[in-house]
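Page 47, continued from p. 46.
Same chain as before, 451 aa.
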Amino acid sequence: MPRTTDIRVVDINISYEDHPFRTPLKFGGRVMDKHRLVNVEVTVENKAKQHAVGFGSMPVGQVWAWPSATLTPDETSAAMTDFSERIVRLVDGLDEYGHPIDLVFHVSAEYHHSAKVIAERRKLSEPLPELAQLVAASPIDAALHDAFGKVNDVNSYNALSKEFMARDLSEYLDEQFQGEYLDQYTLREPKARMPLYHLVGALDPLTSGDVEKKIGDGLPETLAEWIAADGLTHLKIKLNGDDLDWDVQRVLAIDAVATEAQQQRGCSEWFYSTDFNEKCASVDYVLDFLKQIQSKNPAAYDRIQYVEQPTHRNLKAHPENKMHQAAKLKPIVIDESLVDYESLLLAREQGYSGVALKACKGQTEALFAAAAAQKFGMFLCVQDLTCPGYSFLHSASLAARIPGVAAIEGNGRQYCPAANRVWGHDFPGMFDITDGTVETGLLKGFGLGGF
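Result:
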């Protein structure tokens, strides 16, 4: 039965912001030096004829979402923005009332066809892959969830129960979730504070001797300076995946710098995650990497909390890439491969033991993945897409509402801090980092967090 809280779209608009990076970011053999943000504003009404405006924002992130071998980043970026605009038009044409989960679930059935249409119109050699589709649609998804909460005077994470939703999770996942709703897998209040994962890109200088040319903008320029300035306790390390000696030495060098910096500030406990961005040829590479780290520096090995997406994102095409042995050593987390519930089940079958949630894959899909990961007892973390400003607040609100997520990645402040300035005035606890944590308890207002 329809709820009085159900919404329909009255108006929707899309706009863009371009931001250069203060320093290039290298990951998975690719380099990014700029961002285009897709911003979506949607006006909705509920059954009580009340109106509110919701907002969503997300970087295009084409270098990560669509690393094409035949198309340039400019071509994939243009196709992804075309996709965003096409989905905006589809959402604008919806005349039905519903919960955002249902509205997005309905519209997402058109993603595949829309990707093919855009490829044909642009005469591209390939359509948008599923991951690029999710990223391009994610600001629309977020705007709908945000608007739903605001028009009904409720935090969106507190509007996921039977009171607000017409269907249980078995409608979207499978019969294992019969009678269950997303409120079972989310928190009613955000975690007060969460550790921030700082990114160490493959090009990032560790010490002053690594700095070829100073940026001179007043922000830290080396890892040691970042640790001292922000009180960091969590470091995410980007690795090559095709150069074992370099990867091992990179972790050991980072640990040496971190150990000295942490000792100077009196910190005795800190953590790492390692991200190969699917560049490892096989699980044997991961096993060799972990064993070498453990042999050469047991303390550094113990600090590794998890390993992120070591091998190719196409799980069906590479069934030989089983992660069972590596998962006995550390949680092995699926990231680029995770585009729907089916891919989560396949990853679990192939030995992955953890899930990386990302707001850039859509609020709706992230909530489904969070529920499934908890149901199956998998390790959980939240990563971002070098998200600045509003998109970082959205990502942080997701992390703060999912049980089991212990830290959040947030590297927009490193690579595109200019995009944070406006938001930093209203949420200083989220952008001014001094003790290695962000004040996620601020994100408890109506909508996705009151921002």
